[in-house]
Amino acid sequence: MPNKNAGWGTALNDSRVVSVIRGGPGRTHGVGPENVSEEGRVTTYDDRASLTDLTATAERVRGSVEGVIEGKPEVVRLSLTVLLAEGHLLIEDVPGVGKTMLAKALARSIDCSVRRIQFTPDLLPSDITGVSIFDQQRRDFEFKPGAIFAQIVIGDEINRASPKTQSALLESMEERQVTIDGQTYELPSPFMVVATQNPVEMEGTYPLPEAQRDRFMARVSIGYPSPDAELQMLDVHGGVSPLDDLQPVAHAHDIVKLIDAVRTVHVADPVRRYAVELVGATRNHPDLRLGASPRATLHLLRAAKASAALSGREFALPDDVQALAVAVLAHRLLPTAQAQLNRRTAESVVLEILQRTPVPAAVQPNSGYFNQQPPGARRL
Fold this sequence. Notes:
The protein contains 14 helices and 15 strands. The chain is an alpha/beta fold. Pfam families: AAA_3, AAA_lid_2. InterPro entries: ATPase_AAA-3 (IPR011703), CbbQ/NirQ/NorQ/GpvN (IPR050764), ChlI/MoxR_AAA_lid (IPR041628), P-loop_NTPase (IPR027417).
Protein backbone atom coordinates (compact mmCIF):
# COMPACT_ATOMS: atom_id res chain seq x y z
CA MET A 1 0.00 0.00 0.00
CA PRO A 2 1.60 3.33 -1.00
CA ASN A 3 2.41 5.89 1.65
CA LYS A 4 -0.01 8.79 1.35
CA ASN A 5 2.69 11.16 2.66
CA ALA A 6 5.32 9.99 0.21
CA GLY A 7 7.44 12.84 -1.03
CA TRP A 8 8.30 14.52 2.24
CA GLY A 9 10.47 11.63 3.39
CA THR A 10 12.17 10.83 0.08
CA ALA A 11 15.59 11.79 1.45
CA LEU A 12 15.35 8.93 3.94
CA ASN A 13 16.75 5.53 3.06
CA ASP A 14 13.93 3.20 4.14
CA SER A 15 14.00 2.70 7.91
CA ARG A 16 17.69 3.44 8.39
CA VAL A 17 19.16 6.91 8.47
CA VAL A 18 22.56 8.27 9.28
CA SER A 19 22.94 8.71 13.00
CA VAL A 20 23.19 12.39 13.75
CA ILE A 21 22.84 12.24 17.51
CA ARG A 22 25.50 14.54 18.77
CA GLY A 23 25.82 18.07 19.97
CA GLY A 24 23.16 20.09 21.72
CA PRO A 25 20.39 22.46 20.70
CA GLY A 26 21.44 24.88 18.00
CA ARG A 27 24.56 22.90 17.08
CA THR A 28 25.17 21.34 13.70
CA HIS A 29 24.06 17.72 13.60
CA GLY A 30 26.21 15.90 11.09
CA VAL A 31 28.42 12.93 10.54
CA GLY A 32 31.72 13.35 12.31
CA PRO A 33 34.65 11.07 13.16
CA GLU A 34 32.74 9.65 16.13
CA ASN A 35 30.10 8.31 13.73
CA VAL A 36 32.56 6.27 11.66
CA SER A 37 33.72 2.81 12.68
CA GLU A 38 37.27 1.52 12.32
CA GLU A 39 36.27 -0.15 9.05
CA GLY A 40 35.15 3.21 7.69
CA ARG A 41 31.42 2.43 7.80
CA VAL A 42 29.03 5.17 8.91
CA THR A 43 27.13 4.33 12.08
CA THR A 44 23.41 3.88 11.41
CA TYR A 45 20.45 3.32 13.65
CA ASP A 46 16.95 1.93 13.29
CA ASP A 47 14.85 5.10 13.24
CA ARG A 48 11.49 3.34 13.06
CA ALA A 49 12.21 1.31 16.18
CA SER A 50 13.15 4.49 18.02
CA LEU A 51 10.00 6.25 16.87
CA THR A 52 7.96 3.25 18.01
CA ASP A 53 9.55 3.51 21.45
CA LEU A 54 8.95 7.25 21.41
CA THR A 55 5.27 6.86 20.63
CA ALA A 56 4.78 4.23 23.34
CA THR A 57 6.60 6.25 26.00
CA ALA A 58 4.85 9.47 25.00
CA GLU A 59 1.49 7.72 25.22
CA ARG A 60 2.26 6.61 28.76
CA VAL A 61 3.23 10.13 29.80
CA ARG A 62 0.22 11.61 28.01
CA GLY A 63 -2.15 9.21 29.70
CA SER A 64 -0.63 9.96 33.08
CA VAL A 65 -1.00 13.73 32.64
CA GLU A 66 -4.51 13.46 31.19
CA GLY A 67 -5.52 11.57 34.31
CA VAL A 68 -4.99 14.86 36.15
CA ILE A 69 -5.93 17.41 33.46
CA GLU A 70 -9.29 16.29 32.07
CA GLY A 71 -10.59 17.29 28.67
CA LYS A 72 -7.43 19.04 27.37
CA PRO A 73 -5.61 16.50 25.17
CA GLU A 74 -4.27 19.16 22.80
CA VAL A 75 -2.64 21.05 25.70
CA VAL A 76 -1.02 17.86 27.00
CA ARG A 77 0.28 17.00 23.52
CA LEU A 78 1.80 20.45 23.12
CA SER A 79 3.55 20.08 26.48
CA LEU A 80 5.08 16.77 25.35
CA THR A 81 6.05 18.31 22.02
CA VAL A 82 7.96 21.11 23.75
CA LEU A 83 9.68 18.63 26.07
CA LEU A 84 10.90 16.42 23.21
CA ALA A 85 11.91 19.48 21.16
CA GLU A 86 14.21 20.63 24.00
CA GLY A 87 12.20 23.77 24.57
CA HIS A 88 10.52 25.61 27.43
CA LEU A 89 6.81 26.11 27.97
CA LEU A 90 4.91 29.20 29.10
CA ILE A 91 1.42 28.47 30.47
CA GLU A 92 -0.63 31.66 30.47
CA ASP A 93 -4.25 31.70 31.59
CA VAL A 94 -6.72 32.98 34.17
CA PRO A 95 -6.55 31.70 37.77
CA GLY A 96 -7.94 28.32 38.69
CA VAL A 97 -7.80 26.46 35.38
CA GLY A 98 -4.93 24.14 36.33
CA LYS A 99 -1.76 25.87 35.11
CA THR A 100 0.41 24.74 38.00
CA MET A 101 -1.27 21.33 38.13
CA LEU A 102 -0.39 20.72 34.47
CA ALA A 103 3.25 21.57 35.15
CA LYS A 104 3.37 19.35 38.24
CA ALA A 105 1.60 16.46 36.50
CA LEU A 106 4.10 16.54 33.64
CA ALA A 107 7.01 16.67 36.07
CA ARG A 108 5.73 13.82 38.26
CA SER A 109 5.05 11.60 35.26
CA ILE A 110 8.79 11.47 34.58
CA ASP A 111 11.31 10.02 37.03
CA CYS A 112 13.65 13.00 37.13
CA SER A 113 14.71 15.82 39.41
CA VAL A 114 12.03 18.48 39.85
CA ARG A 115 12.23 21.87 41.57
CA ARG A 116 9.50 24.44 42.00
CA ILE A 117 10.19 28.17 42.29
CA GLN A 118 7.46 30.41 43.64
CA PHE A 119 8.26 33.75 42.05
CA THR A 120 7.69 36.67 44.41
CA PRO A 121 8.79 40.33 44.35
CA ASP A 122 11.51 39.66 46.96
CA LEU A 123 13.02 36.67 45.15
CA LEU A 124 16.70 37.20 44.35
CA PRO A 125 18.67 35.96 41.32
CA SER A 126 20.93 33.93 43.63
CA ASP A 127 17.86 32.03 44.87
CA ILE A 128 17.51 30.69 41.32
CA THR A 129 21.09 30.23 40.12
CA GLY A 130 22.87 29.55 43.41
CA VAL A 131 25.56 31.28 45.43
CA SER A 132 29.16 30.74 46.52
CA ILE A 133 29.55 30.54 50.31
CA PHE A 134 32.86 30.71 52.17
CA ASP A 135 33.64 27.48 54.01
CA GLN A 136 35.68 28.34 57.10
CA GLN A 137 36.93 24.78 57.58
CA ARG A 138 38.20 24.42 54.04
CA ARG A 139 39.01 28.15 53.79
CA ASP A 140 37.57 28.19 50.31
CA PHE A 141 34.34 29.14 48.58
CA GLU A 142 31.79 26.38 48.09
CA PHE A 143 29.07 26.63 45.48
CA LYS A 144 25.52 25.98 46.65
CA PRO A 145 23.34 25.21 43.60
CA GLY A 146 20.05 27.06 43.27
CA ALA A 147 16.64 25.81 42.23
CA ILE A 148 17.54 25.96 38.54
CA PHE A 149 19.69 22.84 38.94
CA ALA A 150 16.93 20.36 38.14
CA GLN A 151 15.73 18.58 35.04
CA ILE A 152 12.24 20.07 35.17
CA VAL A 153 11.91 23.50 36.79
CA ILE A 154 8.42 24.80 37.57
CA GLY A 155 8.29 28.60 37.77
CA ASP A 156 4.98 29.56 39.35
CA GLU A 157 3.66 33.08 38.65
CA ILE A 158 6.90 34.06 36.91
CA ASN A 159 5.70 37.60 36.25
CA ARG A 160 5.57 38.39 39.98
CA ALA A 161 9.36 38.54 40.22
CA SER A 162 11.35 41.63 39.30
CA PRO A 163 13.02 41.86 35.87
CA LYS A 164 16.37 41.48 37.60
CA THR A 165 15.32 38.09 38.95
CA GLN A 166 13.63 37.04 35.71
CA SER A 167 16.88 37.68 33.84
CA ALA A 168 18.58 35.03 35.98
CA LEU A 169 16.85 32.46 33.74
CA LEU A 170 18.20 33.81 30.45
CA GLU A 171 21.51 31.93 30.33
CA SER A 172 20.10 28.68 31.68
CA MET A 173 17.16 28.60 29.25
CA GLU A 174 19.22 29.31 26.15
CA GLU A 175 22.62 27.74 26.86
CA ARG A 176 21.64 25.15 29.51
CA GLN A 177 24.35 26.34 31.84
CA VAL A 178 24.84 28.73 34.74
CA THR A 179 27.84 31.01 35.27
CA ILE A 180 28.59 32.04 38.86
CA ASP A 181 31.73 33.95 39.87
CA GLY A 182 33.39 33.14 36.56
CA GLN A 183 32.69 29.40 36.89
CA THR A 184 30.32 27.69 34.44
CA TYR A 185 28.14 24.81 35.58
CA GLU A 186 26.32 22.56 33.12
CA LEU A 187 22.65 21.83 33.74
CA PRO A 188 21.32 18.25 33.68
CA SER A 189 19.63 16.73 30.66
CA PRO A 190 16.78 16.78 29.88
CA PHE A 191 16.22 20.36 31.04
CA MET A 192 12.89 22.16 30.74
CA VAL A 193 11.42 25.26 32.34
CA VAL A 194 7.63 25.24 32.70
CA ALA A 195 6.49 28.70 33.78
CA THR A 196 3.01 29.96 34.58
CA GLN A 197 1.63 33.47 34.64
CA ASN A 198 -1.71 35.18 35.08
CA PRO A 199 -2.49 37.70 32.29
CA VAL A 200 -5.50 39.19 34.07
CA GLU A 201 -4.22 40.40 37.42
CA MET A 202 -1.61 43.12 36.91
CA GLU A 203 -1.05 44.46 40.43
CA GLY A 204 2.39 43.60 41.74
CA THR A 205 3.49 41.98 38.49
CA TYR A 206 6.28 42.70 36.03
CA PRO A 207 5.67 41.88 32.34
CA LEU A 208 8.17 39.42 30.94
CA PRO A 209 10.80 41.18 28.82
CA GLU A 210 10.91 40.26 25.16
CA ALA A 211 14.25 38.48 25.56
CA GLN A 212 12.65 36.24 28.18
CA ARG A 213 9.48 35.52 26.19
CA ASP A 214 11.55 34.69 23.11
CA ARG A 215 13.29 31.89 25.01
CA PHE A 216 10.03 30.05 25.59
CA MET A 217 9.42 27.71 22.68
CA ALA A 218 5.64 27.83 23.01
CA ARG A 219 2.86 29.47 24.96
CA VAL A 220 -0.32 27.60 25.78
CA SER A 221 -3.62 28.60 27.35
CA ILE A 222 -5.55 25.83 29.05
CA GLY A 223 -8.96 27.47 28.94
CA TYR A 224 -12.10 26.51 30.81
CA PRO A 225 -13.13 22.84 30.72
CA SER A 226 -16.25 21.59 29.02
CA PRO A 227 -19.26 20.81 31.26
CA ASP A 228 -18.59 17.07 30.98
CA ALA A 229 -14.90 17.50 31.81
CA GLU A 230 -15.80 19.73 34.75
CA LEU A 231 -18.22 17.10 36.08
CA GLN A 232 -15.50 14.49 35.78
CA MET A 233 -13.12 16.84 37.57
CA LEU A 234 -15.53 17.00 40.52
CA ASP A 235 -15.45 13.22 40.78
CA VAL A 236 -11.69 12.92 40.44
CA HIS A 237 -10.61 15.95 42.46
CA GLY A 238 -13.50 16.01 44.92
CA GLY A 239 -11.90 13.70 47.48
CA VAL A 240 -8.13 13.70 47.09
CA SER A 241 -5.73 15.27 44.63
CA PRO A 242 -4.85 12.92 41.76
CA LEU A 243 -1.29 14.22 42.01
CA ASP A 244 -0.90 12.29 45.27
CA ASP A 245 -1.20 8.94 43.48
CA LEU A 246 0.67 9.93 40.33
CA GLN A 247 3.66 7.67 39.69
CA PRO A 248 6.45 8.14 37.11
CA VAL A 249 5.81 6.27 33.87
CA ALA A 250 9.11 7.19 32.16
CA HIS A 251 12.69 7.71 33.26
CA ALA A 252 14.84 10.72 32.47
CA HIS A 253 17.15 8.47 30.44
CA ASP A 254 14.17 7.46 28.30
CA ILE A 255 13.39 11.10 27.59
CA VAL A 256 17.00 11.74 26.56
CA LYS A 257 16.83 8.85 24.08
CA LEU A 258 13.54 10.16 22.73
CA ILE A 259 15.04 13.62 22.26
CA ASP A 260 17.89 12.03 20.30
CA ALA A 261 15.33 10.22 18.13
CA VAL A 262 13.47 13.48 17.46
CA ARG A 263 16.70 15.07 16.21
CA THR A 264 16.87 12.51 13.42
CA VAL A 265 13.43 13.39 11.98
CA HIS A 266 13.86 14.54 8.40
CA VAL A 267 12.68 17.98 7.27
CA ALA A 268 12.53 18.55 3.52
CA ASP A 269 13.80 21.82 2.07
CA PRO A 270 10.28 23.03 1.04
CA VAL A 271 9.10 22.61 4.64
CA ARG A 272 12.12 24.55 5.90
CA ARG A 273 11.43 27.36 3.45
CA TYR A 274 7.77 27.34 4.46
CA ALA A 275 8.75 27.90 8.12
CA VAL A 276 11.12 30.70 7.10
CA GLU A 277 8.41 32.39 5.02
CA LEU A 278 5.90 32.24 7.88
CA VAL A 279 8.33 33.80 10.34
CA GLY A 280 9.54 36.36 7.79
CA ALA A 281 5.96 37.49 7.14
CA THR A 282 5.64 38.56 10.79
CA ARG A 283 8.54 40.99 10.38
CA ASN A 284 6.84 42.93 7.59
CA HIS A 285 3.23 42.83 8.78
CA PRO A 286 1.65 46.31 9.17
CA ASP A 287 -0.12 45.31 12.39
CA LEU A 288 3.09 44.29 14.16
CA ARG A 289 5.83 46.49 15.51
CA LEU A 290 7.99 43.50 16.44
CA GLY A 291 8.08 40.28 14.45
CA ALA A 292 9.45 36.87 15.30
CA SER A 293 13.19 36.30 15.66
CA PRO A 294 15.41 33.73 13.93
CA ARG A 295 15.24 31.81 17.19
CA ALA A 296 11.50 31.50 16.57
CA THR A 297 12.20 29.84 13.21
CA LEU A 298 14.49 27.34 14.89
CA HIS A 299 11.93 26.65 17.62
CA LEU A 300 9.17 26.18 15.03
CA LEU A 301 11.26 23.65 13.12
CA ARG A 302 12.24 21.71 16.25
CA ALA A 303 8.64 21.60 17.43
CA ALA A 304 7.50 20.38 14.00
CA LYS A 305 10.03 17.53 14.17
CA ALA A 306 8.82 16.56 17.64
CA SER A 307 5.19 16.67 16.49
CA ALA A 308 6.01 14.44 13.53
CA ALA A 309 7.78 11.95 15.80
CA LEU A 310 4.80 11.87 18.17
CA SER A 311 2.65 11.01 15.16
CA GLY A 312 4.98 8.12 14.32
CA ARG A 313 6.48 9.75 11.23
CA GLU A 314 10.15 9.95 10.26
CA PHE A 315 9.65 13.26 8.46
CA ALA A 316 7.88 16.54 9.12
CA LEU A 317 4.98 17.85 7.05
CA PRO A 318 3.70 21.40 6.50
CA ASP A 319 0.78 20.27 8.69
CA ASP A 320 3.15 20.10 11.66
CA VAL A 321 4.35 23.63 11.04
CA GLN A 322 0.81 24.95 10.61
CA ALA A 323 -0.50 23.25 13.74
CA LEU A 324 2.25 24.77 15.91
CA ALA A 325 2.61 28.23 14.33
CA VAL A 326 0.25 30.05 16.72
CA ALA A 327 1.64 28.43 19.87
CA VAL A 328 5.26 29.03 18.85
CA LEU A 329 5.04 32.49 17.28
CA ALA A 330 2.19 34.48 18.85
CA HIS A 331 3.76 35.21 22.25
CA ARG A 332 6.82 36.75 20.57
CA LEU A 333 4.89 39.32 18.53
CA LEU A 334 4.05 42.88 19.55
CA PRO A 335 1.01 44.47 17.85
CA THR A 336 1.08 48.14 16.98
CA ALA A 337 -0.98 50.66 18.94
CA GLN A 338 -3.45 50.94 16.08
CA ALA A 339 -3.84 47.16 15.93
CA GLN A 340 -4.54 47.08 19.64
CA LEU A 341 -7.20 49.78 19.20
CA ASN A 342 -8.74 47.61 16.50
CA ARG A 343 -8.55 44.64 18.90
CA ARG A 344 -6.20 42.75 16.63
CA THR A 345 -4.34 40.08 18.57
CA ALA A 346 -1.04 38.42 17.74
CA GLU A 347 -2.89 35.12 17.34
CA SER A 348 -5.20 36.56 14.66
CA VAL A 349 -2.19 37.95 12.79
CA VAL A 350 -0.51 34.53 12.74
CA LEU A 351 -3.72 32.91 11.49
CA GLU A 352 -3.94 35.51 8.72
CA ILE A 353 -0.34 34.80 7.71
CA LEU A 354 -1.11 31.07 7.61
CA GLN A 355 -4.05 31.74 5.29
CA ARG A 356 -2.11 33.80 2.76
CA THR A 357 1.26 32.00 2.76
CA PRO A 358 1.47 29.38 -0.03
CA VAL A 359 1.78 25.83 1.26
CA PRO A 360 4.58 23.87 -0.42
CA ALA A 361 3.56 20.95 -2.58
CA ALA A 362 4.97 17.48 -1.97
CA VAL A 363 7.18 15.75 -4.49
CA GLN A 364 4.27 13.50 -5.41
CA PRO A 365 1.02 15.39 -6.09
CA ASN A 366 -1.15 12.78 -4.34
CA SER A 367 0.58 13.14 -0.98
CA GLY A 368 -2.73 13.46 0.85
CA TYR A 369 -1.86 16.16 3.32
CA PHE A 370 -3.69 18.89 1.39
CA ASN A 371 -6.98 17.61 2.77
CA GLN A 372 -5.97 19.00 6.16
CA GLN A 373 -5.08 22.53 5.02
CA PRO A 374 -6.85 25.44 6.69
CA PRO A 375 -9.51 27.03 4.49
CA GLY A 376 -8.08 29.57 2.06
CA ALA A 377 -4.50 28.30 2.14
CA ARG A 378 -2.89 28.39 -1.30
CA ARG A 379 -0.76 25.73 -2.88
CA LEU A 380 2.41 26.46 -4.81
